[in-house]
Each structure stands twice: as C-alpha cells, then as structure tokens.
TrEMBL record:
Transmembrane segments: none
MF (Gene Ontology): heme binding; oxygen binding
Organism, scientific name: Anditalea andensis
CDD domains xref list: TrHb3_P (cd08916)
Lineage: Bacteria, Pseudomonadati, Bacteroidota, Cytophagia, Cytophagales
InterPro entries: Globin-like_sf (IPR009050), Globin/Proto (IPR012292)
Identification of the protein by name: Globin
Signal peptide: none
Length: 134
C-alpha cells in the first residue's frame, strides 16, 4: 500500500495512537509514561489535538498547550529521571512510526518539529533543575 501524507485528524490520530502504543511497552519510556498517565484515552486525545494544530493548523489545540511546563513537572514527579537518551528513544520511535505509515511534507514537518521540540524540552528541563537547586 503506498504511503500518503498526513492530511486529516484521522491520520494524526492513527499516528499518535500507533506511536504511543509502542512507547507504552518500551523498556525505558514505558515506565515513565505509564507511571504518569492515569487516563490514556484522555491523554491521547490531548496529544492528537496538539499534533493536529502543529501539522494541520486545525482543531481545538491552539493556545492550550505548554509542553515545557508539563515536561518539567514530569521530571520532578519522576525524581529527575528524564535524561537525554530518553529523548533519543522517543525521536527514533516517532520517526519510525512516521516512516512506517506516511510520507510527504507534513510527515517531514512532524519529524523536524519533534526534533526541535525534543532539544528545547531537554534543555528547558535541565534549566528547571538548576532553578530548583537555587
């Protein structure tokens, strides 16, 4: 079956659900996500909203997300267990999920945005740790 680009909320939902099914069973990422997320369906819908606004510029997501704040809180709750390699695993799995099912401009943008977001989140988490020490 030929791959197509991400063009609808249905595509975004498929991507997010496929990806997080893998995350939940990953040896390193699974325990963190499963330890934090209590209601997976609600969490997935929120992530679908987020990626829909990023990739399609549609949906209910505009202005309702603060990924830096959320990830700093997760780092604190997990006892500062988030480290750079986890972002590498996350990106590898995100890219793999995209490559398995999609190709095109939005699929490429999903990779680029995720790469930038991972770097920003990691550095902001590290900044947050320094702020908490002071």
């Amino acid at each position: 079956m030929p791959k197509q680009d991400i063009t609808s909320r249905k595509d975004v939902s498929f991507l997010v659900r496929n990806f997080y099914a893998k995350v939940r069973v990953h040896a390193d990422l699974g325990p963190i996500f499963n330890g934090i997320v209590n209601d997976w369906e609600s969490h997935l819908e929120r992530l679908i909203d987020f990626w829909e606004i990023i990739l399609l510029n549609t949906g209910p997501g505009a202005g309702k997300f603060n990924p830096v704040k959320v990830h700093k809180e997760v780092d604190q709750v997990t006892g500062y267990k988030i480290h750079q390699a986890l972002f590498g695993h996350w990106l590898e799995m995100w890219f793999s999920s995209l490559d398995e099912h999609f190709e095109g401009a939005n699929a490429h943008f999903a990779k680029e945005h995720a790469r930038k977001m991972a770097h920003i989140l990691f550095f902001r988490i590290m900044d947050g740790r320094m702020e908490n020490k002071n």
